[in-house]
Every structure is written in C-alpha cells, then in structure tokens.
Design brief:
By secondary structure, the chain is an alpha+beta fold. It has one domain. Helix content is about 55%, strand content about 20%. The protein has 6 helices and 5 strands. The protein has helices spanning about 5-40, 50-60, 90-105, 110, 120-125, 130-135, and strands at about 45, 65-70, 75-80, 85-90, 115. A 5-stranded mixed sheet has the order 1-4-3-2-5, with helices on both faces. Helix 2 (about 50-60) runs antiparallel to helix 5. The radius of gyration is 20 Å and the shape is globular. The N and C termini lie far apart (about 75 Å).
Length: about 140
C-alpha cells in the first residue's frame, strides 16, 4: 500500500497558492487592459461627488460596461469600484473601444455592453447631465 509522502500536503498547498496568484494576476491584468482600452477610446473619467451621484454609482455593477438609453441618448458606463471612478462614453467612444478590442483579438464577451437597469439609467442621466460628461470636448 502506498502512503502519501509528508511533502504531499506542502506540495498541494504550494500548488493552490500558485494557482490562486495566477488567477488574481490574470483578473488584474484584464481590468487594467479594460481601463487602458477605455481611456484609449476617449471615455471620460468621472468621480461621483454629490450624495446622489455616490448613491447611483454604488448601485451599478462593477467591472462591466453598462449601456443606458435615456431621452434619446445612449451612454456607456464602466464602474471601476477599486478606484472609485466611472468611465463614461457615448456611442462613438464605445465603437472605438470595440474596434480596439477586436484589434487585440479579445473575446466579444470581454467588451460586450449590458443593458443598464432603467431606474439607474434615468437616475444616472439626471445626476450626470450630458453637459457634465461631455464638457471640454
């Protein structure tokens, strides 16, 4: 009968640590690449300042692109929860982002926009008016 060696639990623990570190590094790299691509596509970086903006920001899902349709305007929002900021763009910025992702042969799920909850879309639009988002353009 073969008995496991004393090194087996240590080897198993080391393997788990290496795999966990690899997964965390991969996720961090993906988030950094997303932010880099959003910036290259000219998304605006906004920081919630008012209590209303902070409340709306808190309700958005983190680390995915949300699409909102409000009053005939389409906006795209990516919440970077760790940095406490949101990347916001219009259709032109999102199209640039998609093209940059395609050039890097990224999986379409990587850059897919999800429909924002209509309640948050209307509240977002009211808290961050187009004048706020696209000033200085």
């Amino acid at each position: 009968m073969n008995r496991p060696s004393a090194a087996s639990p240590t080897l198993l623990a080391l393997t788990i640590v290496v795999l966990a570190t690899s997964i965390v590094s991969s996720v961090d790299a993906q988030f950094n690449e997303t932010k880099s691509l959003l910036a290259a596509a000219r998304f605006r970086v906004l920081t919630p300042k008012t209590p209303r903006q902070k409340e709306i920001y808190a309700g958005l899902p983190a680390y995915k692109i949300e699409r909102a349709h409000v009053h005939g305007t389409v906006i795209y929002v990516y919440k970077d929860e760790k940095a406490g900021i949101a990347y916001v763009g219009a259709k032109a910025e999102y199209e640039r982002y998609r093209k940059l992702c395609a050039q890097r042969h990224l999986d379409p799920d990587f850059f897919a926009a999800h429909e924002m909850d209509p309640m948050y879309a209307h509240r977002w639009y009211g808290a961050w008016s187009p004048k706020t988002v696209w000033r200085d353009r």
